[in-house]
Amino acid sequence: MTDSNITATLTVHGETYELPVHSPTAGPDVIDIRKLYSDAGVFTYDPGFTSTASCDSTITYIDGEKGELLHRGYPIDQLAGKSHFLEVCYLLLYGELPQAKDLEQFETTITRHTMLHEQMQYFYRGFRRDAHPMAIMVGVVGAMSAFYHDSTDVSDPHQREVASHRLIAKMPTIAAWAYKYHIGQPFVYPRNDLDYASNFLRMCFAVPAEEYEVNPILSRAMDRILTLHADHEQNASTSTVRLASSSGANPFACIAAGVACLWGPAHGGANQACLEMLEEIGSVDRIPEYIDRAKDKNDPFRLMGFGHRVYKNFDPRATVMKQSADEVLELLGVENNPKLQVAKALEKQALEDPYFAEKKLFPNVDFYSGIILEAMGFPTSMFTPIFALSRTVGWVSQWKEMIADPQNKIGRPRQLYLGETTRDYVDIENR
Ligand code: CMC
Q: What is the full per-residue pLDDT of the chain (431 aa) written as tens digits?
């Protein structure tokens, strides 16, 4: 963080205060209000953090106007096109692209941590079969705190490293087993000779009666889905992980909090909600009715998979995801899938509508990811768990950065209180 030469001047209650302004390496300058309350006795008010930088970070940068997403400076389209998920994991965690030997060692480490403690199976069996896989994941990820005691001391850098590897390595197994339990099939153990994405596909789709041949095009598409969702700066679930960990809570509990936050339909749950919306629309001729509903202020309905808090021109992840959707659907011979037809027509009609143009609403990454995942054979309930497994590396990288930061303090926002002021208790008979 560099101090710029400028300061911001704030006048409040007749007094003037000079506030330092910091210049980032990219993005808007940031007014430092850390001493505002102690100096001026006022708070700032910013529900939803639309104008507030909650931390400093060197991991991910988004320029919402340009539609740019950088991980450690590398554009997402280059990473999605030339790299692969585990290399991006290394980049996010350690800040640089790995040398060949470092990557090999990292891949070996992740591969050797993919099994779950055998006792965790019984934890799964405590859930109802119809439990949503995200509900199971929130529970099982949190339960890792009870199984891996040698990686819960956050003050020990070695334990933090082990916890990071365990989370990235075990998340595919946790997600795949949530799915297997949900559909009543036996758990499939991880296999070390497969790459990360292929191993996940196999754990989801193999059965003891028949081996699952991983199609390399599907495995590549899955790897790309994972890469595109790997991190996204200080979004709701990442901020949840940071806030939870600011108290010194153990890593597994913090990541479980991130999984819980991600589940919401305004965040990671949008991919499931989007597919359900396409199903509900059902046919191209019903699209205008849904577009009218999305525009109606008195109707809470929104076009799922449209809009983004930060991107205001396009979502660069959606551009890559759309290409991937075309490839996968062609490979699987399902280009005429009715939901895809509705999706394509909906995208076109919404983009031509002045309401969406004025509000800068366009398809986000989740508009296309669900279409690919459904074509691969995943039920809608697995879309958000797959997002959670991809985002784990982002949560972990941001968590590690935060714990190692000497400025780390417990997160404790203040409020604009609008309730009653002090009043005396009234006995029940006198109310
Ligand atoms: N359909 C119709 N209108 C919308 C939509 C939508 N999808 N999104 C925003 N608007 C309108 C909204 O009604 C508001 O109108 P007005 O100014 O007249 O009140 C305006 O656009 C701004 O909306 P906002 O809710 O203030 O914007 P936000 O930055 O708080 O919300 C969002 C961003 C992503 C939550 C929102 O666009 C949304 O709910 N989209 C649908 C859910 C979705 O696809 N989420 C996935 C995001 S990408 C994956 C991820 O990062 O998790």
A: 556 678 999 999 999 999 999 999 999 999 999 999 999 999 999 999 999 999 999 999 999 999 999 999 999 999 999 999 999 999 999 999 999 999 999 999 999 999 999 999 999 999 999 999 999 999 999 999 999 998 899 999 999 999 999 999 999 999 999 999 999 999 999 999 999 999 999 999 999 998 899 999 899 999 999 999 999 999 999 999 999 999 999 999 999 999 999 999 999 988 888 999 999 999 999 999 999 999 999 999 999 999 998 898 889 999 899 888 888 888 888 777 788 889 889 999 999 999 998 999 999 988 888 888 988 999 999 999 999 999 999 999 999 999 999 988 999 999 999 999 999 999 999 99
In terms of C-beta density within 10 A (0-12 exposed, 13-18 middle, 19 or more buried), how is residue 2 classed?
Answer: exposed
User: What's the residue count for the chain?
Assistant: 431
147 and 227 part of one domain: yes
Q: Which of 278, 308, 360, 384 to mutate to test the pocket of ligand 1 (most atoms within 8 A of CB)?
A: 308
Tell me: do 221 and 274 sit in the same domain. yes
Do 39 and 171 share a domain, yes or no?
Answer: no
- Which of 373, 356, 357, 241 lies closest to 303 in space, CA to CA? 356
Atom number in ligand 1 closest to CA 265: 42
Determine the Cα–Cα distance for residues 206 and 179; give it in Å rounded to an integer.
Answer: 12
Residues with CB under 6 A from ligand 1: 232, 235, 266-268, 270, 294, 302-309, 359, 361, 364-366
| Given 366, 405, 424, 427, the catalytic residue | 366
Is residue 308 part of the annotated active site? The answer reads: yes
Does 415 reside within a domain?
no
Give the separation between CA 10 and CA 18, rounded to whole angstroms.
6
Q: Are residues 318 and 246 in the same domain?
A: yes
For residue 39, the enclosing domain spans 7-53
Residues 291 and 220 in one domain: yes
pTM of the model: 0.92
* 117 catalytically annotated: no
Residue 62 located in a structural domain: no
Catalytic residue among 84, 223, 308, 315: 308
Judgement on whether residues 214 and 308 belong to the same structural domain of the protein: yes
Measured distance CA(32)–CA(36) in Å, rounded: 8
User: What tokens does 230 get?
Assistant: 């790997």
CA 254, chain centre distance (Å): 14
CATH number assigned to the domain comprising residue 238? 1.10.580.10
The ligand 1 atom nearest the CA atom of 294: 2
